[in-house]
Specification:
The structure holds three protein chains of three kinds. Chain B is α+β, with helices and mostly antiparallel strands. Chain B is built from eleven helices and 13 strands. Chain C has a five-stranded mixed β-sheet. In chain C, helix 8 links the parallel strand 9 and strand 10. Chain C is α+β, with helices and mostly antiparallel strands. Classes of the chains: A alpha+beta, B alpha+beta, C alpha+beta.
Chain lengths: 80, 366, 402
Amino acid sequence: MEKEELKKQIYTLIEQAQGKKKYKQMDIIKHFRNLGVSDAETKEAIRELIDGGQLIYTYMGGSYIELATKLEKFEKDIFK
Amino acid sequence: MPYVIPDVVDVKQRKTDIGPPHYKNFLPPVIQKNYGDWKTHEILSPGLMVHIANSGDKIWTIRVASPRLLATDTLREIADIAEKYCDGYFRFTTRNNIEFLVSDESKVNPLIEELKAKKYMIGGIGSRVSNIVHTQGWIHCHSAAVDASGLVKCLMDEFADYFTTKETPNKLRFAVACCTNMCGAVHCSDIAFVGIHTKIPRIDHDKFKDLCELPTTMAACPTAAIIPDPAKKSVKIKEEKCMYCGNCYSVCPSLPIKDPVNDGVAIVVGGKVGNLRTPPKFSKLAVAFLPNNPPRWPEVIKATKMIFDAYVAGAKKHERVGEWIQRIGWEKFFAVTGIPFTWQHVDDWTYAFETFRTTAQIKWVK
Amino acid sequence: MTKKYDTPLLDELEKGPFPSFVTEIKKAAAKNEMAADELGLLEKSFRDKVTYWKHGGIVGVRGYGGGVIGRYCELADQFPGVAHFHTVRINQPAGLFYTSEAMRFICDVWDRYGSGLTNFHGSTGDIILLGTVTDNLEAIGTIFSINGFDLGGSGSAMRTPSCCVGPARCEWSMIDTLDITYDLTQEFQDELHRPSFPYKFKIKTVGCPIDCNASIARADCSIIGTWKGPIAIDQDKVKDYVKKGMNIQEEIVNLCPGKCITWDGNNLAINDSDCLHCMHCIAKLAGALKPTPPFGATVLIGSKAPFVVGATLSWVIFPFIEMKPPYQEMKDFIRAATEWWSEYGKNRERIGELILRMGMREFLEAVGLTPTPEMVKEPRRDPFWFWKEGDLEGKPWESWLK
């Protein structure tokens, strides 16, 4: 899969799972492994999404990868 | 190396994955010269030791206590003292003490005098009480059942003489953890304190679906006490199975367990990490519950003194608390300390069967 | 002027000989609003007997998933200064050595961007800078990085490796704990900053079996220096200890777990083939006894605090491994072990717990090791074991029954 396409699909995967399932890095890698994408390619695409600021790491008793927009919402909600 | 703090910070200049600075930048010249080539050391007094290299070079170490929580003003004072007597070189121990590293013998006594004048507590080297490894407590932790720094302060005040002058049969290592998550070596310390809960978590059903994930929350429970509550899109807790560990709260903020009335302090004893003489040991339960009573926790201090005094009176030279108990037996431990043996002392968890006595070898203590 | 609070309960903890953390908070509170509100909040916790901090693990610096612990206050309205009160973990120099200049730099950063409160150090070993706000994080990360410091680990990641004082100032260190720690930290930068593991993974390195960094109790990977050569004895120095009042029979011979020392009042003898390498005699007779090469390490896996099934001490995986730069065998082992764990581990499952769930054999095969008696306390006592295809191939008994 082309890298930009892979990045788009990773983003979509996480976007659509919002509120239902939180993905760890390995979950994403395994998801795309089943679609024939190598672990290294997925890892690199995740890294670019995170370095680019579209995705972030989050922590709630374990580390996950979520949409970067989650931070603003989280900080707004936490003081409610 | 000159350090720079620009007035305007350009975040694009940030370098990633550089790791920590190389430790050699911080080693005094005498250590750089004799690195890995030390011959021996001598403890000259409870807070002073000298290490002697094969080359004949020496370095003196003066150890002082720190509360671990330090203001920048104090750190600057330490930096100033180190500059005056140690060419700017100092370090910390893994138990949060500060060590001034003196290369010039003539500066040892003046440094000690200045430290005394500034009310630093000097000691902690050798067979005695050292500083207490502890967690954040109410200062900074969301899952703290009790405070940590406060308990540490009360314990160290009580046993201060054993840091500065008096000896114990062997090193005595206290540790404090503010909840059963135990961010510190509480499970392997001579006498350790852990904050505990005694009531099940409350469930904030409205927030559960926003804040928590069902499978993760269920998996966090060691006893499978958490089950789904589909009607409320939340969970239920089987009260008879819950042992109040609070692990669910770590993954799910809508299961708060903190409780001003029913949280307390447990004391565990006999753990060690070193391999000297006997293998490393886990700490075992001595007191299942004492009230969480800030600011001085008098019940905890009193119970600790009962254990501490029995150890100092009964242990042979070089015996750690766990080795002393192993020699005299647990039935004798409870007899000589005067601590009652209760239901909570009998294990009913993962390794329970390994703790039941499987021999007729018993000491009659009364 | 910063906000002032009445703190009768905390004031109580300024009394007594041990240095007071309350005094520290007050020092910072005198010039920093965050610290001032931290003091007020803590007094309230002492009064109400509960913590007022919230979960919150989303903040960080761009690109990293660790190094910042997000923290928010439940009582932000009453204590606005600590509405945000995030912790920054800075990777400590190995061995916890500092210069005054470096320390002043850290203080300058924290007076400008944080509460002025710190921990030297956190349980894992990092420099802990307590209390800052989300908007300051990128600047803090940048300033530390351009001055040669990097963030430490947090979350489901490689945590900041740490070690004892080692060869820098200890005659017993049989491996270079500082160099190993520095080297492994550099090797695993990606794993440290970008959480990709099921849960945390800690490495602690100590120079000898005295274990001054509790590696066997609180590191997923414990590296403990040890030796294979005989214990060298300086008989004159042994006699010096006798002159100073030591009872060699009681304090040394009787306490030897290997029962391999004899003392005839004049001569100390050690049967090295029965030595358990515990360090008792060497530590008590400092300068008179010393270990001799070959030096290396015993490497153990799996210790952790009680969650979820109970506390574990680490288990021996390499009874003895050479620890010479570039530590390739160690690095390969850590990679193989963490890859196996990442593949099969569940969220929040430590590597030791996975080994218990899947079996030690699965782990050893994954990292390419075969079992030896040094790995166990005793062989199994139950009659229930697995056979794998090939275990009995070639009639293995024939070779050793010859």
